[in-house]
Structures are given as structure tokens and as C-alpha cells.
Amino acid sequence: MSGDAAPNPSPEPEPSPEPEPSPALAAVATGPLAGRVAVVTGASSGIGRAVAARLAGDGATVLALGRDQARLDALGKEATALPSSGSLVPVRLDLTDTAAVERFAADTVVRYGHVHLLVHSAGGYLNSRVEDASVDDFDAQYAANVRGPFVLTQRLLPALRAAAALDGDGDGGAAPAGADVVVMNSSQGVRAGAGTSQFAATQHAMRAVADSLRQEINSDGIRVVTIHLGRTATPRQEAIFEREGRSYRPELLIQAEDVADLVTYLVQLPRTAEVTELHLRPALKSY
Ligand SMILES: NC(=O)c1ccc[n+]([C@@H]2O[C@H](COP(=O)([O-])OP(=O)(O)OC[C@H]3O[C@@H](n4cnc5c(N)ncnc54)[C@H](OP(=O)(O)O)[C@@H]3O)[C@@H](O)[C@H]2O)c1
Fold first, then answer.
1. DSSP 8-state assignment for residue 218
2. At a CB cut-off of 8 Å and minimum separation 6, what does 274 contact?
3. Pocket of ligand 1 (CB under 6 A)
4. Residues forming a β-bridge with 225
5. Whose CA is nearest to atom 19 of ligand 1?
6. Per-residue pLDDT tens digits for 247-284
């Protein structure tokens, strides 16, 4: 099943070919995250896909955002196969379309009220040396990697605050009080290497956004964590290896499922503690 009805804020919505299951089906979820609502960007590929699948598999209602409707629909079927699963709602949304992001957030606040978890895993990656770089590429990466996630976070704050203010039993469900924002970042967001100036600048910017936001909303019961990732086996990384002319051996890299494990651990950490920043590296330093 692919979950209850999807808010689709895109200008030309492409309805899922699957009939919408009854929201009552989602209520039978028994996984550890049952009762929680999660918004995951970049859910159509790589890390975001693995995180969305894990959260839904663990019982959450997941609003899975991406631009590729077919891949989102396929994920919805895979991620909710077990009886203990929650639901997965595919949402086609381009983060660079500010009006669409605002519509999605407004719909979500009305429809779900609470958002317990916001995971940022969408974005673009273009590399070139400063002297060769296209300024249009810089603008495009800023729009997808910083501006879009910033607007989405800003507009979902009321729903995150609502989740954080729950009484501990959730809204009649099992979700505990508290909310989390998880931001996938890169090792380039700590120290930029040659040829990555534009992308690295967007990652440094998101680190700044996360650090500032944390200080603004911790007192509301919302935690904010940045995960600085090393090379992780995803379609993006495969393309990077191809450009670098190196053979791609995904088994030597962090697995997207490793990151999903980490996210489920972080959100279930007792609310008396907060992880603010993590650096995840492949265990084998093969590259
Ligand atoms: N893989 C790594 O080695 C690595 C290392 C460090 C950091 N990270 C970070 O981890 C995150 C995910 O990386 P990944 O490797 O999983 O990437 P990926 O496989 O390339 O997936 C990127 C995702 O972002 C979505 N996206 C891109 N532009 C978008 C836009 N304008 N609006 C909405 N969605 C958009 C894509 O959607 P569509 O496919 O539907 O267009 C896709 O779902 C990124 O933030 C990245 O910086 C990854």
C-alpha cells in the first residue's frame, strides 16, 4: 500500500495509479515509530529513499518527497509491505519551486497537524574548479540545496512545534512528545576540497542554518542534528566515480541503509539528550 491520500502541490499533479488505501489501514501500524509523521526529502533516490523506507517500515506515516513520481510510487509499494508498517505518501515536489513548497507545507499542517520528523536528504551536486564554474550552476545548487530546504523547514515549524508539544501519548497514537530535524550534509560542509567550491558552499550554508535553528527551537522540544557524510553508495556517488574515471565498488562505502539505521536511532534517543552533529565515514578508508 502507498498510504493515505497524498497532498500534491505540483502545478501539474500526476496522480498515483494505485487506489488510495483507507487511512484506517495505517492505524494498524505496530512498529516502533507508529503514530509519528515524518517528512523526508530526496526520497526518490539514495539516502533519502533508504531513510523513508526504514521509517515507514518502522510504522511511521512518511510523506516522501521527490521529483520522480514513478520512483516514489515504487517506493511506496516496497516500504509498506509488512503488517507492522506505517504508510508512505508519495509527493512530487521540486524544492526550487517556492510556491509549491509553501503549498505542500500548508496542506501538511492542515491535514496532519503534527510533524515529528523532518529529514533533509534532497539536493544537487555539480563540481568544477572556480575558474571554470558556471554561476548559473551555483544559483541552481543554492536553490535546491539551501533555499528550498530553508523554506520547507520554516513552513513546517508550526507542525514540528505541535508534535513537540504533544502530551507524550501522541495524538491518540503511540508517538512520544518531541520533534526532530535531521539534515544530511557532507564532509565538504566541514572542509571543502578542490573542485567543490559551489557544492561545499551550500553545505556550509546548511550547517549554519541548522546550528542557528537549533538554538532557536531547542526550547520548544525540537532537536536538530547535522550528519556530515563521507562517500555513501548511492546513484549520486556512482556518477561521481564515473566522472572521476574510477571503478565503483559500493561495498567499500557507507550504505544508505547505515544512514537509515542512524536516523532511527537518533529519533528514538531519550528526549533528555540531543546529538547535534555527527561525522560518518566508510569504515574502510579505501578511497
Ligand atoms: N552519497 C554520498 O556519498 C553523500 C556524501 C555526502 C553527503 N551526501 C548528502 O546526502 C544527501 C543525499 O545524497 P544521495 O547520494 O542520496 O543523492 P541522490 O541519490 O543524488 O538523490 C538526490 C535526491 O535529491 C532529490 N532532488 C534533487 N534536486 C531536487 C529538487 N530541486 N527538488 C526536490 N528534490 C530534489 C532527487 O530527486 P529526483 O531524483 O526525484 O529528482 C533525489 O531524490 C545529499 O544532501 C547529499 O549532499 C551524500
1. G
2. 218, 223, 225
3. 42, 44-48, 66-68, 94-96, 121-124, 144, 184, 186, 229, 231-232, 234-237
4. 182
5. 46
6. 999 999 999 999 999 999 999 999 999 999 999 999 99
